[in-house]
Amino acid sequence: MIEARGLARTFKTRGGTVEAVRGVDFQVGAGEIVGFLGPNGAGKTTTQRMLTTLLSPTAGEATVAGCDLRRDPVGVRRRIGYVAQGGGTNPAALVDEELVMQARLHGLDRAEAERRAASIRGLLDLGDLGRRPVKTLSGGQRRRLDIALGLVHAPQVVFLDEPTTGLDPHSRANLWDHIRATRAQTGSAVFLTTHYLDEADALCDRILIIDHGRIVAEGTPSELKRRISGDVVSLNLDGHAEAARALLRGQPGVHEVVLAEGTVRVTVDRGDEQAIALMRALEAASIRVLALHVARPSLDDVFLTLTGRSLRETEAANAPS
Amino acid sequence: MQTLREAILVFRQQLRLLLREPVWVVIALIQPLLYLVLFGPLLEKVAAPGFPAGDSWVVFVPGLLIQLGIFGSLFVGFGLLSDVHYGVLERLRVTPASRLALLLGRVFRDTLVLVLQATILSLVAVAFGLRVPLAGAVITVGIIALLGIALSSLSYAAALRLKTEDALAQVLNTLSVPVLLLSGILLPMTMAPGWLYGLSRANPFSYVVDGARAAFRGELGGTALLAGLAAAVALAVIGLVVGTRTFQRDQA
């Protein structure tokens, strides 16, 4: 659905040339939810603005929904939806005015546009708000309207720039549900940017980690986490700790066994699959397991390992919250 | 054809939004009405040398109409900037709609409002004692419409390039005062000393004002009206070309 090859953008400023995006290569398949994860200023929004024809790349090329970005920008626009970070609605306009006009600018006739507006309102839980002025909507409703505007013409791929920034935790979780449901219903691919680890983790089939204008890692959330350090299985035992350590060290796929305050911490490749095998081995040696806990490394650990910086620290330093 | 359809969609949305806040249309009309009511009657007593033939209303009202045209259109860019800040323009730029349509829809709206304002102003002037041939008045309103197309396009282009309200206000104020003074809107430039008259001839708006006055006097075949029409058409074409180019630009 998206194929970017060496896409790059530099900006000339008074201080010199800024390389916002330094050549990124990636693909997004049909119906996939792919997230661009990185701190503010990493080049996420610049990449999206290039792919949505708002900004011409200084190097590289891309195909979006089958259309060449440079040669056929109108073809790209016909097939995509774009939801900017700050949204794009006039506070004085009515919800349906915005939806119908957006659909009609995509070439639909009035009846079809109205039908689509009503159906996307239903999908995004804006049911009876069609005649409401945009300025009377709550933050979460307005964000869902922004997304509805990006989807009303049934695009093959929709770009969401920081979809949940500024929303309260309840509205965020709610919006994630809606993004998942929308993908399931429409089959549109979703390409989103985020600087929230939990969002990338909860929503994305695949994550591209971007830092300083370059993609530094790519994979499913669990692949990325596994690549870094493996999972940790913590076992609470009724004694026999030393014996348990010796036994567990010999098990296949075990990297490290550490004793800490009566708990045995075992680092393995796949915690979810191996935890039961570890437990059975212990039971076979008559060591009882009282409690078991499997922890995966967070995406923050991944980011830390890849860039030497914690995403949370980077975020705190860059963004006024 | 596709562009026209898209422009009409933008036009209708813009018109709906305006009608939701009609107070702005009224405010824009109040200023020229104040000129008409509070300044116009003074002119009846003034027999300034160099005024073209005809009573003072025939001289004054065309100037007032063009002043309305200039100031009613020149500041529409501020409305576009608020759309830019809301992200509305960017959203529309990611639709397949032609960039010309995004500009034209707004310009159509501004021009329609201007024509209505000019008509109201002319009717009020008639109540005050203006006597003007209908054809002349209609042609003048047409000239105002052309000015509206020119200046609202240029205002949008300036807004997109300057990007902030502060910069736009400074540029527009700096430009509008000499344009106004050198157009002969307030007093005919035939009263001016030679150097000033020469300067005013470099200002296309002075031809437009002279043309509108000729139309009000009923001199429909004269060179003054032709020159005024030509200047208005040229300004409209320039405005649309500059406006479209600016809308097509990368908004980096």
Walkthrough of the structure:
The complex is a heterodimer of chains A (321) and B (252). Chain A contains twelve helices and 14 strands. With 321 residues, chain A is an alpha/beta fold. Chain A has two domains: 2-223, P-loop containing nucleotide triphosphate hydrolases (Rossmann fold, 3-Layer(aba) Sandwich); 229-296, Alpha-Beta Plaits, CATH 3.30.70.100. In chain A, the strands form three sheets. Chain A has a six-stranded mixed β-sheet, sandwiched between helices. In chain A, strands 2-1-4-5 form a four-stranded antiparallel β-sheet. In chain A, strand 1 and strand 2 form a beta hairpin. Chain B is mainly alpha-helical and 252 residues long. The two termini of chain B are 29 Å apart.
Q: What is the number of strand segments of chain A?
A: 14
Named at the architecture level, the CATH assignment of the largest domain in chain A is 3-Layer(aba) Sandwich
Class by SSE composition of chain B: mainly alpha
Distance between the termini of chain A: 34 Å
**Class of the largest domain in chain A in CATH?**
Alpha Beta
How far is it from the N-terminal to the C-terminal residue of chain B, by CA? 29 Å
Helix content of chain B: over 70%
Number of strands of chain B: 0
The helix-strand sequence of chain A is EEEHEEHEHHHEHEHEEHEHEEHEHH
Short account of what is shown:
The complex is a heterodimer of chains A (321) and B (252). Chain A has 321 residues and is of the alpha/beta class.
Record the SSE blueprint:
The complex is a heterodimer of chains A (321) and B (252).
Chain A: E1 2-13, E2 16-28, E3 33-37, H1 44-51, E4 59-64, E5 67-68, H2 73-79, E6 80-83, H3 95-105, H4 110-123, H5 139-151, E7 157-161, H6 169-186, E8 189-194, H7 197-203, E9 206-211, E10 214-219, H8 221-229, E11 231-237, H9 241-249, E12 254-260, E13 263-268, H10 271-284, E14 289-295, H11 299-307, H12 311-318
Parallel strand pairs in A: 3-8, 3-9, 6-7, 7-8
Antiparallel strand pairs in A: 1-2, 1-4, 4-5, 9-10, 11-13, 11-14, 12-13
Helix pairs in contact in A: 3-4, 5-6, 8-11
Chain B: H1 2-20, H2 23-43, H3 56-74, H4 77-86, H5 88-93, H6 99-128, H7 134-162, H8 165-181, H9 194-201, H10 204-217, H11 223-248
Helix pairs in contact in B: 1-6, 2-3, 2-6, 3-6, 3-7, 3-10, 4-7, 6-7, 6-11, 7-8, 7-10, 7-11, 10-11
